[in-house]
Amino acid sequence: MTARIDPFAAAPVQMKLWLDASLKIAPAIEHSLLELIKIRASQINGCANCLNMHTADARKAGETEQRIYLLSAWHEAPVYSARERAALAWTDALTLVSTARAPQEVYEAFAAEFTPEEQVQVTLMINAINGWNRLAVGFDLFHDAKSTAQAA
Fold first, then answer.
1. Contact 40, 88 (CB under 8 A)
2. What integer is the mean pLDDT of 98-111?
């Protein structure tokens, strides 16, 4: 696959702002949960670039292979906490907002596990990863950190 454009070369100022904002959105949320959110949204959006990146980041953060593999079937998998399930359901609803909307019962479960500030942080992270997915899918981006490291 060849990238259509390099957004960092085409619009460096805007992409730096987008990257900086994305990295600062949810400082109080546990890193492992943020990676699960990023992986789940990327699964729904079919973003190979982001799946590659965030599964590697999740492993580095100590996430287990089992929990990464079962994420696409999180509804049936008993390996996620109530807090994680609430965040994953919210991720599913907002990633699929054009068809799923944001059901009240999903929000209530989310609100039961997260403070109002955390709700905003998680929601912003969901928005950020969906934005990154759209950049990567739209411009056919794929950066394989492993092959870059091997080449170096």
1. yes
2. 97
